[in-house]
TrEMBL record:
Subcellular location: Cell membrane
A Pfam family matched in the record: LRR_1
Family assignment from sequence similarity: Belongs to the RLP family.
Transmembrane domains' residue ranges: 1204-1226
Name of the protein in question: Leucine-rich repeat-containing N-terminal plant-type domain-containing protein
């Protein structure tokens, strides 16, 4: 094997096993070959043994895995086969017959005779002559025995010959595989590599646990798209002529009885006469010579093919099958009775709650043991040292947190070792490691490593692969010059989460692969990397590297894979990347790089995978395609500010498998040359400005499994023929366009979809009947699809296994109860904004999300809420805007998983049920716009997770409890408006530092506004998240499984109510209007520089408007109307450049309205009812220049001016009253005259009225 081949193999995690096998194989064959050739054992004749001294007599099983050592078969050939050494010359007897010697050593009377490398001491020549005659006589007898033959001997000899040929052929195959792997190595990557390139990261379980395991296992999932995806275990079987040993068959049956096997994968393990040969059972491998059980493959293999990488639906199908196939139960100790077992794989099962079986450490015949992710737990016992034949050992998670015993150093033949643990004790002992001199692959996860470990690594002469994921390395190494990892080729120290790179790493000049993923390394990319000139794989992704891409990377011309994604690299994409002509994979995504892709990348003819997503390219799409090699198989340019339109040039990329141009500004119609992309499996063009009918160009792409064209300007009529070739399609996202589907009533899709998004299509008016054939659906989005029909009965059966169904914003009518034969079992159900009526449906325990809002459901909630006896997992319940009535039932303790409840705008009355206080996970509760009464219940003290509480528009009374601020420390929205709350606003409300909306309007609150409002820290932040997130259980969405939702709220702002959702996190509001609050506006409120809406109108507030109101730069709306504020409008108010609503009317303000860009644009009604002048009022301020300004004299003074206007008005009223009334009291004649005048006026008025009536009646 060439050096390059070996280097490449050793750079891959799975290469270690191949190399281990080859070494062990050659060592074994050399030993057996030499021994048989030296002795001529089992030759037909002695003459043949001398003549064909190289003839083998090997016992090798064609079906044997090379991971275990072959065994000798015991048999009786019919004669004495004991090997007798040549007689010593001291035992020579003259009476013995003499013999002739066929050959003797020259040069003396003694020496050595060599036979195929095995040396024996030769007798003296005279001794050989003396025995020659005797040997000749005996040889005739011996020849007769051999001539008669022995059937077993002849069979064994034939087998040996066949095995030698088979071994030679196997060597050729292995060498060919190595060459193929070298030639196609740049095309072979794990599923996590591909998902990383998509930016669609798996969760930790899928990413870390699956990576690498799929290569090791021999079990594959057949890519069947049927209802039952099955895992096909490689059940290595012996030749049909091999019959298992009965005692071992009974042992296997005992083993099976204690296992749980939900998928019945061990169904072949039975005593039936037609299947009694255990060597043919699933997962069992027998030695074809000895018939002993040699291997047990009972792992549940997480193998993932390339199909799953581009098909989330198919992966979900596989994953479900994988979980169903996991074995459980317990391992019967009878397993130890299999004395010849050398291969045991129990990985990826569910033996939960069990320690590692003790008897395993007595099975000394084992050469391969894999207990990874099997569910076992516990410490690694010292008895592990008994397994001295082990070559492969994987205890990931099985020995989680265990201390590594020193006895593991006794495994001197170990070549592959994988351990995982946490805590300082896990790796405190390192003395055992240097004794593993043959170790080639070492995987340690989660260990805290000292300098002693670095020395120990240095002492492993055969170490080629070192994986230290999530390990903490020493901050510095005192003697890096002493390190000489002469054999180390690959190093992975990812996920360690430290901000440095150990300097000793850069002394490993023979490294071929270096991974430093997600270590929070900051600053520029280290220059020392340029010392690693042999690097083929460099992965520095998910760190915090800044600055530009360094020039020295252009000198690492051996690079095949380069990943710099997920950093903060700036500047342009450098031209020197064109020097890396061997580059196959390049990932620069998720950086701050900007500018066009350099034309030098045209030199990269070997490039196959590119990810330029989330950059600032500002480039035309056709320019990009002209630069890049048309040999690409993956091209991802998502969200990178790409524009222009696609031309027929796209057809030149006929090897492309995955293409993602989503979230850009590409327009125009799709070119016809898309038809040439026959290998295309994944196509994502969503969120662009494409137009026309895409199916004219895409309908012939029969290999497509994922198609995303949603949220564009596509339009047109889609017919049956447009889907005819999509036989492999499993995921179809086409919502947000203007399509009309016209198909026959009996039409069915030729593919089985798992994810389907057709929102805003015209699918109606009838409910689409073709959905009935799609029984694989996991995700169905058909909202706003123009459906004017009821939901058919078959729909609930077809979609019973779905995760997500959205039929909202249609015109679906009818009663759900008439179409449901069983409780709803879909995990997420969205039927809002339809015309459904009747009682609420029953739910199964699977439902996590139920949205029936804006329908016409009626009646009580009692049956729905209280008669369900199952354990419910419902997280979100939205029944808003229906016709539900009665009291809210008091049985919420059965729904403990609820995090979001919305019952607003119904007809509920009575008290809020105390059992809601048992909902400890509750984060959002909305019951506004009902007729609820009573007080703020103390049972809500337990709801410490609340972030959103809306009791508005009810008839609640009493005071706001003091404990609200103490218990609701996470509250972000508090709405109690339009109730009958009274008393003071508690100061404890200021302790809610996350509060961003405080709405207490339209109550009977009195007293002063709390002076501590400046403690509401969330209103002091000017830059916040745009969304308010409520965390729920995982649910499916377009980007796989999510664990959160965006909260929505109805907020009264600027005199009207609106729903806020996507920007709810930005809204900050204080509304205390329409109460009986008094006192001054607290100055501290002006510290809330993040406050947007402030309404204190319709109260009894006095004093001045705070001078520092201009510091509240985020304010867009101020309403201080109908109070008793006085003084001048502070001039700083003109600094509020975002102000678009202002109402200071009906106060006692005076003086000139400050001049500013905003203030003069408001209507005059904003200032009426005061003593103000200046624009926008028509009152002239010519005399105001002499008025002494309060704000200009003393900004912070609280001196009260005398209100001379009111004093003079009162005095004038008193004087005028007595001038008119006084004489009437003093002079009687004046009094009588005044009364006569009044009588005369009254009589005259009555006559005029009578005359008017007569005239009107005459006219009639």
């Amino acid at each position: 094997m060439g050096v390059n081949n070996m280097n490449h193999l050793q750079a891959k995690p799975f290469a270690a096993k191949w190399r281990v096998n080859l070494i062990r194989y050659y060592d074994l064959m050399e030993e057996l070959w030499g021994a048989d050739c030296a002795t001529g054992h089992m030759a037909r004749t002695a003459c043949q043994a001398r003549r064909n001294i190289s003839t083998q007599s090997l016992k090798v099983d064609l079906n044997d895995d090379v991971d275990y050592i072959l065994e000798e078969q015991s048999f009786d050939p019919g004669f004495d086969t004991t090997y007798r050494s040549p007689p010593h010359m001291d035992s020579y007897s003259p009476s013995d017959s003499t013999q002739s010697v066929s050959s003797a050593t020259s040069g003396g009377t003694g020496g050595t005779s060599s036979s195929q490398g095995t040396k024996r001491k030769s007798p003296m020549v005279d001794v050989m002559d003396a025995h020659f005659d005797k040997l000749t006589t005996k040889l005739d007898v011996f020849t007769d025995y051999l001539g008669q033959g022995n059937a077993l001997t002849q069979k064994l000899f034939d087998i040996g010959e066949r095995q030698v040929l088979a071994i030679e052929r196997r060597n050729e195959i292995i060498n060919k595989q190595v060459n193929v792997m070298r030639q196609t190595s740049t095309f072979q990557h794990s599923e996590s590599d591909i998902w990383d390139m998509y930016g669609l990261r798996f969760n930790t379980y899928k990413k870390n646990n699956f990576e690498g395991e799929k290569r090791k296992t021999s079990c594959h999932l057949r890519g069947r798209r049927s209802s039952e995806a099955t895992i096909n275990r490689r059940c290595i079987k012996s030749d049909t002529g091999t019959l298992c040993i009965p005692s071992e068959r009974e042992t296997l049956l005992k083993l099976k009885r204690d296992l749980s096997d939900p998928s019945n994968r061990l169904s072949s393990w039975n005593n039936a006469s037609e299947n009694s040969n255990c060597c043919e059972w699933v997962g069992v491998v027998c030695n074809n010579v000895t018939a002993h059980v040699a291997e047990l493959h009972l792992n549940t293999a997480p193998y993932i093919s390339d199909d799953y990488l581009f098909d989330e639906g198919l992966f979900d199908e596989y994953f479900e099958a994988f979980r169903r196939s996991e074995l459980g139960g317990k391992i019967n100790p009878c397993l130890a009775d299999l004395k010849h077992l050398n291969y045991l794989d129990l990985s990826w099962n569910l033996f939960r709650g069990q320690g590692m079986p003790v008897f395993l450490w007595t099975m000394t015949s084992l050469t391969h043991m894999d207990l990874s992710y099997s569910g076992f737990y516990g410490k690694i016992p010292p008895q592990i040292g008994n397994l001295s034949n082990l070559v492969y050992l994987d205890l990931r998670q099985a020995a989680y947190g265990s201390i590594i015993p020193s006895q593991i150093g006794n495994l001197s033949d170990l070549r592959h070792l994988t351990l995982e643990g946490r805590g300082s004790g896990f790796a405190e002992n390192v003395d055992w490691l240097p004794r593993l001199s043959k170790l080639e692959y070492l995987f340690l996860e989660g260990a805290t490593l000292s300098e002693a470990w670095i020395h120990a690594f240095h002492a492993l002469p055969s170490l080629t692969n070192l994986n230290l994921i999530d390990c903490l390395l020493p901050l510095c190494y005192s003697q890096p010059s002493l390190l000489n990892f002469s054999s180390l080729l690959t190093l992975d120290v990812s996920f360690a989460n430290y901000s440095f790179v150990p300097k000793w790493i850069f002394g490993l000049t023979k490294l071929v692969s270096l991974r430093l993923i997600d270590n929070n390394i900051q600053g520029p990319i280290l220059d020392d990397i340029q010392n690693l000139t042999l690097l083929q794989n460099l992965d520095l992704s998910e760190n915090s590297f800044t600055s530009s891409i360094p020039v020295f990377l252009g000198n690492l011309t051996s690079l095949v894979e380069l990943d710099l994604s997920g950093n903060q690299l700036e500047g342009a994409i450098p031209t020197f990347l064109g020097n890396l002509t061997l580059l196959v994979e390049l990932d620069l995504s998720y950086n701050q790089l900007e500018g066009k892709i350099p034309t030098s990348l045209n030199n990269l003819c070997n490039l196959r995978k590119i990810n330029f997503s989330y950059l600032k390219l500002n480039q035309q799409i056709n320019e990009i395609l002209q630069i890049l090699s048309n040999g690409l198989i993956i091209l991802l340019v998502r969200s990178s500010q790409v524009s222009g339109n696609l031309t027929n040039q796209i057809g030149d990329f006929n090897n492309i498998v995955a293409l993602d141009f989503s979230n850009n500004s590409i327009d125009g119609s799709l070119p016809k040359s898309f038809k040439k992309l026959s290998s295309l499996k994944y196509l994502n063009l969503s969120n662009n400005q494409f137009s026309g009918n895409p199916f004219d160009s895409l309908r012939s792409l029969s290999s497509l499994s994922h198609l995303s064209i949603d949220d564009n300007h596509f339009q047109g009529v889609v017919k049956e023929d447009d889907f005819a070739s999509f036989t492999s399609l499993t995921e179809f996202y086409a919502g947000g366009n203007n399509f009309t589907l016209k198909v026959g009533h009996n039409w069915h899709l030729s593919s089985k979809l798992t994810w389907l998004d057709m929102k805003e299509w015209q699918l109606g008016p009838n409910f689409p009947s073709w959905i009935q054939s799609q029984n694989k659906l996991k995700y169905l989005e058909m909202s706003n699809a123009g459906i004017f029909d009821s939901i058919p009965i078959w729909f609930w059966e077809t979609s019973s296994d779905a995760y997500f169904v959205n039929l909202s914003h249609n015109h679906i009518h009818g009663e759900l109860g008439t179409t449901l034969r069983h409780p709803i079992s879909i995990m997420n159900v969205h039927l809002s904004k339809n015309h459904l009526r009747g009682k609420l449906p029953h739910l199964s325990e699977n439902v996590v999300w139920l949205d029936l809002s804006s329908n016409s459901f009626s009646g009580s909630m009692n049956d729905f809420l209280c008669k369900n006896q199952d354990m419910n997992h419902l997280n979100v319940l939205n029944l808003a805007s229906n016709n539900l009535s009665g009291e809210i039932p008091d049985c919420w303790m059965k729904w403990l998983c609820l995090v979001d409840i919305n019952l607003q705008s119904n007809h509920f009355f009575g008290k809020i049920p105390p059992s809601m206080g048992f909902l400890f996970e509750l984060q959002s509760l909305q019951v506004r716009n009902n007729s609820l009464s009573g007080i703020f219940s103390t049972s809500f003290k337990n709801n410490r997770e609340l972030m959103f509480l809306d009791f508005g528009e009810n008839n609640l009374s009493g005071t706001i409890p003091l404990w609200v601020g103490e218990r609701f420390i996470k509250l972000r929205i508090l709405c109690l408006r339009s109730n009958n709350f009274s008393g003071h606003i508690p100061n404890k409300i200021c302790d809610m530092s996350h509060l961003q909306v405080l709405d207490l309007a339209h109550n009977n609150l009195s007293g002063n506004i709390p002076n501590c409002l400046n403690h509401l820290n969330a209103m002091t932040l000017m830059n916040r998240s745009t969304t308010l997130i409520i965390y729920t259980s995982s649910y499916p969405s377009r980007t796989k499984y999510l664990d959160s939702e965006l909260a929505s709220a109805l907020l009264w702002l600027k005199g009207r109510v609106d729903e806020y959702k996507t920007i709810l996190g930005l809204v900050t509001n204080i509304d205390l209007s329409n109460n009986k609050l008094s006192g001054e506006i607290p100055t501290g409120i002006t510290n809330l520089n993040g406050l947007i809406f402030l309404n204190l109108s319709h109260n009894q507030l006095t004093g001045h408007i705070p001078y520092s109101i201009g510091d509240m730069r985020s304010l867009t709306s101020i309403d201080f109307s109908r109070n008793q504020l006085f003084g001048e409008i502070p001039p700083t108010i003109s600094k509020l450049s975002f102000l678009n609503m202002l109402d200071l009317s009906n106060n006692h303000l005076k003086g000139k309205i400050p001049t500013g860009t905003q203030l003069q644009t408001f209507d005059a009604s904003s200032f009426v009812g005061n003593n103000l002048c200046g624009p926008p009022l028509t009152v002239n301020c010519s005399s105001n220049g002499k008025i002494r300004s309060y704000y200009h004299k003393h900004k912070g003074s609280h001196r009260q001016n005398v209100k001379w206007f009111f004093v003079s008005m009162t005095f004038g009223f008193i004087v005028g009253f007595w001038i008119v009334v006084g004489p009437l009291f003093i002079c009687r004649s004046w009094r009588y005259a005044y009364y006569d005048f009044l009588d005369e006026r009254k009589t005259r008025k009555r006559e005029i009225r009578r005359y008017d009536v007569i005239v009107r009646s005459g006219l009639d």
